[in-house]
Amino acid sequence: MKHPDCTVLVVSCDAYADTLPPFIALWHKFWPDCPFETVLLTETFTCQGFDRILTVGKCNDWAPRIGRAISQIDTPYVLLVLNDYYLSCPVDTTRILKRLEEAKRCDALNLRLVPNPSGRKPWNGSDLLEMPKNVAYCITCQVGIWNKDFFFKLLSKTRSAWEFERYGSFMVGDETRPLLVTKEKEFPFVDAVHKGYWEEEGIELCRRNGISLDLTVRGRPPFRVKAREALKSLIFALFPWTLIVRIQNLFNIGMKERNKPTARAEN
Q: pLDDT digits over 205-229, tens only?
């Protein structure tokens, strides 16, 4: 019997169908005793190896697509995993279950299992850190345990993953419940695909584990993509993240959707 309080939701779409076979192979290798129902969210395609598959039809909007899946999940917590987050070594199931109990005990909105970005102060004497609200990327798509009702509410105010992180981070100011983050990376994965291209780390992980990739479907990033990402990293290293994101939000810089979100937080 699967754990009654949490479901793993693996988020994918038709454009990333080729990334699923390596994902599920590594998932079963490195987390064979996963105690949670593992649900794959897709648009139209299917992939063997998951406990359940939710096909929600063609939908260009990331957040509404996840919202449709969330409405079909009964557990009060959801462990969000993107389809290009490939497990790279065995998962410590005992530790993940401990984090779930901590999230339940303190009624956390989100307990992120990856300190990216990190919290700023210890949480009530525990080994967790609290993430301040209304700062850049206090809300992210990084692997974490979500209060399902809060997650659904936040998804309903945004459309893309871009909006979810950049606008959603400034929509939580009225919440008294904490956003928590671990001090170390406790969910061992690599971001195998970035900006639609294979990362070298992902290619090497698959090679080490005997998984062949068809690089004609998606290849390595071209120079222009590498240069743009390097410049972006430099800017975020030189200036405060929250200032940068507030300016981006104010002027819709880099907006990836035609329309703005349905709601915004007060500045």
A: 999 999 999 999 898 877 676 676 6
Distance CA 239, CA 107 (A): 33
- CB neighbour list of residue 47: distance below 8 Å, 6 or more residues apart: 17, 20, 21, 24, 40, 53
Tokens standing for 79? 């462990």
Neighbouring C-beta atoms of residue 258, cutoff 10 Å: 6
What angle do helix axes 200-208 and 20-30 make, rounded to 10 degrees?
60
Q: How far apart are CA 123 and CA 130, in angstroms?
A: 5
What CA–CA distances, in Å, run from 1 to 79, 195, 252?
17, 37, 46
> Which residue matches tokens 């530790």?
95
| Contact present, 172 and 102 (Cβ < 8 Å) | no
The domains of the chain, with CATH numbers, are 6-251 (3.90.550)
What span, in angstroms and rounded, lies between the C-alpha atoms of 42 and 31? 21
How far is the C-alpha of 243 from the C-alpha of 121, rounded, in Å? 21
- Whole-model pTM: value is 0.86
Nearest residue to 153 (alpha-carbon basis) of 74, 66, 260, 38: 66
Instruction: State how far the alpha carbon of 100 is from the alpha carbons of 34, 112, 177, in Å.
Output: 13, 11, 15
